[in-house]
Amino acid sequence: MQDQTGSPVLRNAKRIVVKVGSSLVTNEGRGLDAVAIGQWCEQLAALVKDGREVIMVSSGAVAEGMKRLGWATRPKAIHELQAAAAVGQMGLVQVYETKLRENGIGSAQVLLTHADLADRERYLNARSTLLTLLQLGVVPVINENDTVVNDEIKFGDNDTLGALVANLVEADALIILTDQKGLFTADPRKDPASQFVHQAKAGDAALEAMAGGAGSSIGRGGMITKILAAKRAAGSGASTVIAWGREPQALIRLSQGEAIGTLLVAQTQKMQARKQWMADHLQLRGSVSVDAGAAAKVRDEGKSLLPIGMTRVEGDFSRGDVIAIRDIDGTEIARGLANYSSAEARLICRKASTEFEKLLGYTGESEMVHRTNLVLSR
Ligand code: GLU
Fold it and tell me: CATH for 8-270?
């Protein structure tokens, strides 16, 4: 069903992850399409100037590397593809850097792997870096770190990575730009009765059947990986749009609420998803007790927990582990991700952030648990 009035999902989206695939970025492998990248960058810059936070997840390194190495056909050997990615990445980020700068916006290269995001400490590190970049108004340009892993080379053309990044920063929306207009109920080349899907629920099993048929293999960046990416993104409350990358001003128009492509709406609210995520990490590694002032700030005002408000540190935990926050009676008031290990926490317990450097030899975050990584216990 077409929603002619457009959807408020994208209009209200504050934090947006945009993913573009290799064929768009490199003009079907002919070489980096600087004009197309320039147009996306112009739109990304306009979104940043409109107060939104945007992250670009871009493929194209392998395709560009192949061109630079003079390879006409895609090699079968994974190590050759990885080498091509390393060559091509140089050109890829160069174009993004130039085009974003032309629009008055800074950029940053971030190379990630799925394993980075599965590891709690690296997850937290990647999250803090990305959130800091967004706060600075810089657009992170992300690709898979193809040198050390090859998941996206084998399967995804970065669709999965786009979803993982949406999870990581709790984006409101993931926009997957591709060479198709969106999702059809069946392959339009084979089935004249197939219909365009304007809007559906992310994670609806029927979509997987439409995108490739039950049991179809997960090809490199086909529609099925996009449907699965939307399902994954919805896990942290992000809705996904699958749209044609050459649609003029697609990002701007989507952000104005226009219905373009296929919108797959997340069924869980962001906060609810976050609570679920924390609940799934039941294995508490430790806890900190806090004074009445800090307890009130965390519980009643939704503030972060600062080390100065802590009275005691229990257990043996690392940065990124889930810990409990307890009040003076020992009642759990919240759970969250620790910014500091238990050993570090013991050193900075009851201390102001100005003293951290003297005590630790470096300064990390000023919070023990940041409010965005914290969920109140019932
Ligand atoms: N991360 C890879 C790239 O940017 C995935 C695409 C591919 O395998 O061609 O090139």
Answer: 3.40.1160.10
